[in-house]
Amino acid sequence: MAYVVIAYLWLSILLYLILGGADFGAGIIELLTSAKNRIRTRKTLYHAIGPIWEANHMWLIIAIVILFVGFPVIYSEMSTYLHIPLVIMLVGIIARGTAFVFRHYDAIKDDMQWLYNRIFLLSSFVTPFFLGIIAASTISGRIQPDASDFQTAYVFSWFNLFSISVGLFTVSICGFLASVFLIGEADDEADRKRFVNKAIRMNIAAIVCGIIVFIVAEIDKIPLRHWVFGEPLGLIAVQAATVSLAVLWYFIYRGKNMLPRIMAGFQVTMILFAVSYAHFPDFIRLHGGRSLSLLELQAPPKTMEALGWALIIGSVFILPALFYLYYSFQRHEER
């Protein structure tokens, strides 16, 4: 049952990165839009994410619950030594959601709209940025439980070039996902071309940031290159991601909408698989070569069994309802 729980953990992280990432990326795209086109972009992103934006955080909640119940030691280590970026990310989620609601549904349109817009745009960047920082910190080997000072224990574990570079890479991936998703929501050909151009720029940004991540990893002696290119399955995943990128752009220029979204999601899946496969079952790499393993630090068997069945049974009820939510709003838009 442990592998079932781990599979749900991995899938929840993946789905939050894809769906939540596209959600955050919509704000990033608006942030990078010129003033004259910002209103049209805002209208398009409301149309795309308005009905379901809150549902995306379900995947983050599931991942947190799985760690808390199934892997309490790992959850404790993360929440202790990465509490600063975790708090910033959670504040960003709350601030973004609040600003999104008030700037769209506020009964009185006044100068506060300016503040709501700024909070929404800033938190749309900050939240995925710190999500990437947290992810990088878990594999960087910088966390030192035996550190003797505050900065080493709680700051330098995440405030370093590698974590920052992964944070920027995550932001660029979110922007790329959002631009690809928004292409299909464009009202006319001019808007579609605008989102295609944004997808090109975010794609270039993701490639540049990805190269920087590998350079910094080499400097910091993090075996990222070996994880990605040194394992056969990891190498196959990278090749599949590269091919899917070419297929994605082929479908975009053929005027397709759904297929590029599928290819973008597949590409992110392959990237996450390539990075996570090689050091499985280790979830956190600590300073000095130690690691926290998902298989060694799991909860008692009865707890894992109960958690596994709860996830399976919950999926039977939640996933059909979630798919119906997407379907119902899509049918409403078509009408």
Automatic annotation (TrEMBL):
Q: How does it sit in the membrane?
A: Multi-pass membrane protein
Keyword flag Hydrolase = no
The record's GO CC annotations read: cytochrome complex; plasma membrane
Recite the UniProt keywords alphabetically: Cell membrane, Membrane, Transmembrane, Transmembrane helix
Any single GO molecular-function term of the entry would be: oxidoreductase activity, acting on diphenols and related substances as donors, oxygen as acceptor
Q: Which PANTHER family match?
A: CYTOCHROME BD2 SUBUNIT II
- State the similarity comment: Belongs to the cytochrome ubiquinol oxidase subunit 2 family.
Full protein name: Cytochrome d ubiquinol oxidase subunit II
Per the UniProt record, the source organism is Pseudochryseolinea flava
